[in-house]
Amino acid sequence: MNSSLSLFLFVTLMFSGKVLAREDVIATITSDDNKQVYNMVVQSDDETNTIKSFYKDNYLNGKKIDRELLSSATLVTTGVVLDQRGERTVLSLKSDNFDNERGGLVTIDTLFNGVNGQRKEYEMELTQSKDGWKLFKGGKIISKLHILVNKKFLLGAVGIKDIVMK
């Protein structure tokens, strides 16, 4: 077989099994407590836009150090845990009506005060836009979540005081 035909067959085989996935960073999460940054990523089918997977990409000093696969199935059952300290879930995502094709309302559930167990919730909508999957709050796209830590005198950090959404 001549080299031109071999090259043609190689290129054809390489691109015939094209990857049918798209990734959208739906939110960048930062905190006033540390320098770590998290990107929440949605991987969807390139043709149908149906969500295939959720990922949490962990960055430290601008360098990606880890990628965690998050189960989209647990979003509507027990919730997707984003941060856990010991036995306590500090930050999680939950939904009662989420669908991998249409999206839905997503609740960010936070531990406000670990001393007394008080929790706080924030509602957003995860849905498709013309540019891919996005988070919306009050009709506006939200791409940045900044966590303000709830600190108590003598105890230090006890939970999440607030989440600033931009």
Characteristic terms for this protein:
six-stranded mixed sheet; mainly beta; 166 residues; 12 strands; six-stranded antiparallel sheet; 8% helix; 1 helix
Give the helix/strand layout.
Blueprint: H1 3-16, E1 21-31, E2 36-45, E3 51-60, E4 63-70, E5 80-85, E6 88-94, E7 104-113, E8 118-129, E9 132-137, E10 140-142, E11 144-152, E12 156-165
Parallel strand pairs: 1-11
Antiparallel strand pairs: 1-2, 2-3, 3-4, 5-6, 6-7, 7-8, 8-9, 9-10, 11-12
How would you describe the overall organization of this protein?
The protein has one helix at residues 3-16, and strands at 21-31, 36-45, 51-60, 63-70, 80-85, 88-94, 104-113, 118-129, 132-137, 140-142, 144-152, 156-165. Strands 4-3-2-1-11-12 form a 6-stranded mixed beta sheet, with no helix packed on it. Strands 5-6-7-8-9-10 form a 6-stranded antiparallel beta sheet, with no helix packed on it. Mean pLDDT is 88; it is low at 9-18. It is mainly beta. Helices cover 8% and strands 61% of the residues. The chain is globular, with a radius of gyration of 20 Å. The chain has one domain. A hairpin with a 2-residue loop joins strand 8 and strand 9 (132-137). The termini are far apart.
